[in-house]
Design brief:
five-stranded antiparallel β-sheet; 29% strand; five-stranded mixed β-sheet; alpha+beta
């Protein structure tokens, strides 16, 4: 009997030892698993303490995100401009170049004087004639918005001078001559025997004398740089002016040229331009030798047009009517606000007084009070108690699968240790009873 009890005790001791050893191993394994899971979570939540928590810089391809370098303001020579080409002599026969591309696109360093800066309106001379800058090319890669030839400034055609010269008998030993400028502008003239040009105002005259041996003179005007077509006039003295003999006819002074100017403007707000038309009618006088008088000649009509951009005052922006909200649909007209002496009652505007008496207005609703008694005290509703997670004692979010495994191992290890301890304590109690 005692031998059987001894074998049973040895078997229990061995089983308790196995349970204790297995429990310790499970505890160690569970701790390792939970520690690994905790480390992984720490890395997922921002990395180790020395990590900055910033996303890794994956870099960008060279030049990514940088705007294309279109030229610095101080690098004028690398900018591009549109210029209009002209041919001919300015003031004589200058005109837009009829052949080839016009306007053309050129680099700034091809423009004369570009070192001092290039601006719209600059003009310069080249091998073919004169050129004028009309715009800068700010989008070199887009050729769809290039200006057309219609944006090239027109050249004012040279005026036609109306100048005459006549012989003025003076019954002296010299011959007298009179030059008359019938043009609408000043004209610089040269004449036979003159040493320099003489400028005669519009409608003015200029008298000069020559020797008696000069029986004719020629007057010239206009030409390159004068803005007027070249012209000339000739006059002869006829009979010797020194032999008046009392029968010489004296020519009366020539009247001033009659100039009538009419200016009209046409406003086009669709294209936002203003076209100004100037019509000038000039009537010169012609000498009638039969009557020894000056008579009006044929009228000469000239027209000039100038186009400019319309101002904001001339073409104001269209203002669309704003949509109004009628807050009193029961009243006539559109009421954007409740009128004076009116109140809003049930969605309608009601006049405050009727025949001197105040109308009944909606009474304000009483504030809700808990309980039936007037002195009832509102019952405070306690706030919800924080959970273990809110208090910071429990895990947040979903529990990782590895954490569950670790917790299971630790729990199993503890259970085995408790069982082993319980077996040992039971053995001691039985031993005490047996003894």
């Amino acid at each position: 009997m005692q031998a059987r009890h001894k074998r049973t005790r040895r078997l229990r001791n061995r089983l308790a030892a196995v349970l204790a050893a297995t429990g310790v191993a499970a505890l160690v394994a569970g701790s390792v698993v939970m520690g690994t899971v905790g480390t992984a979570q720490a890395n997922d939540n921002g990395g180790p303490p020395d990590s900055t928590g910033q996303p890794e810089d994956v870099g960008q391809p060279d030049g990514a995100g940088k705007p294309e370098d279109v030229g610095k303001p101080d690098d004028v020579g690398q900018t591009w401009w549109f210029v209009c080409k002209y041919v001919g002599t300015p003031g004589v026969d200058e005109r837009l170049q009829p052949s080839g591309e016009n306007p053309i696109r050129v680099a700034a360093n091809a423009i004369e004087g570009w070192q001092d800066g290039v601006s719209v309106g600059d003009s310069f001379e080249d091998g073919q004639g004169r050129s004028r800058v009309i715009a800068q090319d700010t989008t070199p890669n887009d050729r769809t918005d290039e200006p057309g030839v219609d944006q090239c400034p027109s050249v004012t055609p040279p005026g036609t001078g109306s100048v005459s010269v006549v012989f003025v008998p003076d019954c002296l030993a010299t011959n007298a001559w009179r030059i008359t400028n019938s043009s609408s502008a000043s004209v610089a003239v040269t004449y036979t025997g003159g040493t320099s040009a003489v400028t005669i105002a519009a409608g003015g005259t200029y008298d000069f004398t020559t020797g008696a041996d000069v029986d004719s003179v020629t007057v010239s005007w206009g030409g390159g740089g004068t803005g007027m077509k070249p012209g000339s006039a000739h006059a002869a003295s006829g009979a010797d002016s020194t032999n008046c003999g009392g029968s010489q006819t004296v020519v009366p002074p020539k009247p001033a040229v009659v100039v009538d100017t009419v200016v009209g403007s046409d406003l086009d707000c669709e294209d936002e331009i203003v076209t100004t038309t100037t019509t000038t009618t000039t009537v010169d006088w012609v000498y009638d030798s039969a009557s020894n008088t000056w008579v009006k000649g044929q009228p000469q009509v000239s027209t000039q047009q100038q186009v400019r951009d319309a101002t904001a005052a001339e073409c104001p922006a269209e203002v669309l009517p704003s949509e109004s909200v009628d807050v009193c649909p029961n009243l006539a007209g559109v009421q954007e606000a409740v009128p004076a002496d009116y109140s809003m009652v049930n969605g309608k505007c009601v006049k405050d007084t009727v025949e001197g008496f105040e109308t009944e207005k909606p009474k304000p609703r009483p504030e809700p009070v808990l309980g039936d008694r007037p002195d009832a005290v509102p019952v405070a509703v306690p706030e919800a108690l924080p959970t273990a997670v809110d208090a910071g004692f429990g895990p947040t979010g979903a529990v990782p699968q590895g954490s569950l495994l670790g917790q299971g191992l630790v729990g199993g290890g503890l259970l085995m240790l408790l069982m082993a301890g319980s077996m040992q304590m039971g053995r001691r109690e039985r031993g005490a009873h047996e003894s």
